[in-house]
Write a structure and sequence with these properties.
Layout (H helix, E strand, L loop, with lengths): L6 H28 L1
C-alpha cells in the first residue's frame, strides 16, 4: 500500500508518525517523572 504513495508523501507520513511517537514518549516520561 505504501508503495502506491509518492516518496514525499511517504516521508511526510513517516515524519508525522515519528514526531507524534516522540511527543507520546515525552508525555509518558513527564507522567512517570511526576508520580
Amino acid at each position: 500500500m505504501l508503495n502506491t504513495l509518492s516518496k514525499p508523501a511517504r516521508n511526510e507520513l513517516y515524519d508525522s508518525k515519528q514526531s507524534s511517537f516522540r511527543e507520546n514518549k515525552d508525555l509518558l516520561g513527564n507522567m512517570s517523572r511526576d508520580t
